[in-house]
Hints:
Elements: H1 6-28, H2 30-55, H3 63-77, E1 83-88, E2 91-96, H4 113-122, H5 127-130, E3 136-142, E4 151-157, E5 168-170, H6 195-219, H7 223-248, H8 260-276, E6 282-286, E7 289-294, H9 308-315, H10 318-326, E8 330-339, E9 342-351
Parallel strand pairs: 3-5
Antiparallel strand pairs: 1-2, 2-4, 3-4, 6-7, 7-9, 8-9
Helix pairs in contact: 1-2, 1-6, 1-7, 2-4, 2-6, 6-7, 7-9, 7-10
Amino acid sequence: MGVAALRPLAELYNALLTATVIGTVARRGEAAAADLVFRLFRRQHLEKFLPGLEKLGLAREPHAVACALYHYHSNALGGVRTEYLRESDRKAWVRYPPPRWMWRGTAIAAVPHSVSAAMLRGWHGHNGVTLGNPRLGFVCTGMTVDGMPGLEGYYLEHDRELAEAERVRFAYGEETMPRADPSAMPKLDAAAWPPQRLARVHRAYASAYIRTLLQVLDEMPDGTQARAELARAARLVGLQFHEAAATELGMPSNLSAGTRESALAFARWLAAMLQADGEAAETGEEGGEVTVSVARWRLAEGAALRDPLAAFQAWGALWPGACAAHDRFLALSVKCAPRDGSVAARWRVQRR
């Protein structure tokens, strides 16, 4: 079931990321949400961009082309639709057509311009800096959150160095991405990316955003408040998305049983989700109650979190929410403790 659970876990994490940002917009304000998104994408950029260029074989392409191709390939591997067009060595387009992965479902209606723009400022506008090319910038010609048919724009190598504020420019109405033949777009070697590997990359793409989100919240001055928003969003996502995640695995949801069999079914589901994320989860029984245990929380391994326990508790609110959606006469509790920069945990599925 580990491989089968990859997609539903990726969907849960996608929803959690969106819900956290939207919850921040609604409860803490647009500026706080834009700051969160900027920090999230800048950290992802600093960790992943240069290694990703090498892995995708793009490091020796012209800078504008390499950047556009990086976004085209890396997002496509994560399950995000993308388009690409090269106009010249110094100008290359990338487009993310709707539906937008980042702003899942109807949540897109609650995303302000500044919050979507913070993503571009955090990542796209910093590519030139990371490449040591101060002339390289990103020109955005449309964003879906502003009612346009996709987020699109182009990397452009200018004739002069750009000031920080010029690295991302909005040029609505000036240009639009030219028509591109889908069959002519570059493709990765299918033999190197079989379906099972793509499923793992899809999950890893979503999982990496959650890991980075935990790191960002850990570093923020108002991290306690920000983690509280993550925990609130996580419980709601667990409630709202458990049925879909269970149905995809052929498992039950929305029971009103409160039985041992129902508790065992939820424990199997929870273990499958954790195992899909690379956790060494084990089911068992203790004191007549069904348990799920992990000796180490691998999602946070190597993340250098200052407070891994607080991060675990915020992320972990997903699972009591999912348990309540599985069976309203069950409750999920957890005992957790720090362990060498990680967390050991045991969940109990309790009948009420």
